[in-house]
Amino acid sequence: MSSAVEFKQTGHLDPALLDPKAAANAEKLLGRWANTNRETRGIAECEIQRDGDQFSIQIFGAGEDGPIAWPRARTKALANLEEEAGQRTIALAANFEFGFMKSEIYIRVNKGVLVIVLYNTFQDDSGRSNYLNREFFYRVK
Amino acid sequence: MQFAQLSDHVETNGSNASMDLQALPGVWINSNPNTSGIARMVMSEANGKLSLQVFAVGPDGPIDWGSADVKVFAGVPTSKVGAGFTCNFDFGFAETELQGMIMKGLLVLAQFHRFKDDSKRADFFVREYYALEHGRYE
After folding, report:
1. CATH code of domain A10-139
2. pTM of the model
3. A129: nearest Cα among B100, B9, B70, B74
4. H or E stretch at A45
5. In this complex, is the C-beta atom of B124 within 8 Å of any C-beta atom belonging to chain A?
6. SS3 A86
7. pLDDT in tens, B29-81
8. Model ipTM value
9. What fold characterizes domain B26-132?
């Protein structure tokens, strides 16, 4: 990579970032996923579809009378150049806006398990603390 | 009360107590000495708010990213104990979002790097682990 390229860490100069396949290995993320914890009070299910270079994420929150469909989010994949044990996968990041709350999430697959990490920010005056959560999912379809 | 998942639906006592930030301030060191990313972070508290200064690995030594304001998150909506954070750095040519979560004293940091220049570099994600320097065994 040219030394004229701007950077703020050595990782920004990794030649792999110019590899068109850097964010191409997305098949592991696609499909319908169910929470490994059947008693979850968070995300019950998640469906990820691909449409060209975009991904569509449909999340269903656990509700009192059945799943709560979140607004569908569209996002692009992020390459993952290095992680433990030389593992390389990709990740998705998306934001969900509910009005009273917004949720920033990221999704990745680790050894066949889908991991969703959420950072929830309340925008109402309910007195609830902003909170984070991490949940695990297995592929059902 | 509105909710998108049952875990949002909690009873609150109306308390405006500030968040307990005790777990977050200090110097956080990357567990991987060969990282090509963030080597060290300094989390500082002033007037009940946190800021994060980042030092990344550069070809000629550490690169100081400067400081950014930190938004703190609890573990559940009824808690007032800080368990994680988010913050953003805008470098002009790129933006980096950091999402940190403390697990058993370890800081798990997800980093989202998005390029805004015409270098054709792929946006990328890295997850790394950081330990809080405590000096207890030195």
Report:
1. 2.40.128
2. 0.93
3. B74
4. strand A43-51
5. yes
6. helix
7. 999 999 999 999 999 999 989 999 999 999 999 999 999 999 999 999 999 99
8. 0.93
9. Lipocalin (2.40.128)
Residue from the list A8, A104, A130 with its beta carbon closest to the beta carbon of B74: A130
Q: Report the distance separating Cα A10 and Cα A12, nearest Å.
A: 5
Q: Which class for B121: exposed (0-12), middle (13-18), buried (19 or more C-beta within 10 A)?
A: buried
- B79 and chain A: CB distance < 8 Å anywhere? yes
Is the separation of the CB atoms in A23 and A125 below 8 Å? no
B128, B38 Cβ separation under 8 angstroms: yes
Q: What are the residue boundaries of the structural domains of chain A, listed by start? A: 10-139
Helix (H, G, I), strand (E, B) or coil at B56: strand
Please report, as a single letter, which amino acid is at residue A140. Answer: V
The CA–CA distances, whole Å, from B30 to A17, A73, B112, B121 equal 22, 32, 17, 25
CB nearest A78 (choices: B77, B84, B125) = B125
Tokens for A108? 């990745």
Closest-CA distance, A141 to chain B, in angstroms, reads: 23
SS3 B8: helix
Show which of residues 23-42 on chain B sit within 8 Å of chain A, judged by CB atoms. Answer: 36-38
Give the separation between CA A17 and CA A70, rounded to whole angstroms: 32
Residues in chain A: 141
Report the C-alpha gap between B136 and B32 in whole angstroms. Answer: 21
